[in-house]
């Protein structure tokens, strides 16, 4: 069966954040508000397919991990009838989804709806694509390394869905990491944290008091400007006739962004990553211990850059979780973070942590969080806390 939907996929519990970013991007890039999406689970949004919205989504969105175009659906549970149905659909499909001599790759995810293994499903979808294209006089070949289009077969409540991956893989990997450091925060999650923290680059300073490899500060600059992904990283858009020129949506955004860490070697890694990300001059990297960080340091940095001392801002970090939930060092660390936050009156503070020790420390020093939201970090169960200071 022919399908025609735009699927935006992110981490669990990010549906609301992703929908808000889609609206912001569409209004700025396209001058139109998108329709309300259908939600699947806690980490997927489904929109009626629109080429302009698809271009804007894969070019500008920072909170999802993938943007797919769902093009075929099947309720077949065995390989032979699945192949036959896909061949008939593809051969009769007038949409320009394939080009002569293009390379393709196919992957399968959660395909338990079919009575076969993932490799068998991959082979069936691949053969259906190549054979159906041949009926139309189009020659396709398998190219797992540099395909023109990546195809994804995945199961859902309605059966098997076959999609084109518009981003060509994980959108979380921005391509600037030179050194990830220890326990790096995934890039798309940094964007999620910025939105959950309500970071407003027009008025907020952003300080990461434990910046590690620099993911949050680097992401803050690109998110503020809505920096587009380069067209060279999105070959499927050209194949499908969806490519457009792209510029930053907010090119004049210039927030005060500061990344702090007590380790000079770690700060050196963060600087290298910032250079690779093209924001070397936009982030201030400062050696500072989280326990001694104070508004005066932020005010001094602001004045050095010709800005007034900020009166509002966001402290945002992904602190260490500890190897054990009862690690006594966590209590000391989180108490020090809470004490530091008390100095930043009028600011907000957001933290993604996997230990309840932070909430206990803040309850004693600050009070209850405004937001407590479950949010997985890779395979680790964690919570995002937002405090009004």
Keywords:
elongated, alpha/beta, VC0802-like, 8-stranded mixed β-sheet, Rossmann fold, 22% strand, 11 helices, 2 domains, 389 residues
Q: Briefly, what is this?
A:
With 389 residues, the chain is of the alpha/beta class. The chain has 11 helices and 15 strands.
Order of SSEs: EHEEHEHEHEEEHEHHEHEHEHEHEE
| Number of DSSP strand runs | 15
CATH architecture classification of the largest domain: 3-Layer(aba) Sandwich
Strand content: 15-25%
Average predicted confidence as pLDDT = 93
Please report the number of helical segments: 11
Sheet with the most strands: spatial strand order: 2-3-1-4-8-7-5-6
Percentage of residues assigned to helices: 25-40%
Distance between the termini: 54 Å
Q: Helix/strand/pairing class, anyone?
A: alpha/beta
Topology readout:
Blueprint: E1 2-9, H1 15-29, E2 38-40, E3 44-48, H2 51-60, E4 66-74, H3 79-91, E5 103-109, H4 118-135, E6 141-142, E7 149-156, E8 159-165, H5 187-196, E9 205-208, H6 215-225, H7 235-239, E10 257-261, H8 264-276, E11 283-287, H9 295-304, E12 313-317, H10 328-343, E13 348-353, H11 357-365, E14 371-374, E15 383-388
Parallel strand pairs: 5-6, 5-7, 9-10, 9-12, 10-11, 12-13
Antiparallel strand pairs: 1-3, 1-4, 2-3, 4-8, 7-8, 13-15, 14-15
Summarize the structure in words.
The chain is an alpha/beta fold and 389 residues long. It has two domains: 2-165, VC0802-like (2-Layer Sandwich); 187-388, Rossmann fold (3-Layer(aba) Sandwich). It is 33% helix and 22% strand. It is built from eleven helices and 15 strands. It has helices at 15-29, 51-60, 79-91, 118-135, 187-196, 215-225, 235-239, 264-276, 295-304, 328-343, 357-365; strands at residues 2-9, 38-40, 44-48, 66-74, 103-109, 141-142, 149-156, 159-165, 205-208, 257-261, 283-287, 313-317, 348-353, 371-374, 383-388. Helix 5 (187-196) packs across helix 6 and helix 10 (328-343) runs parallel beside helix 11 (357-365). The protein is elongated.
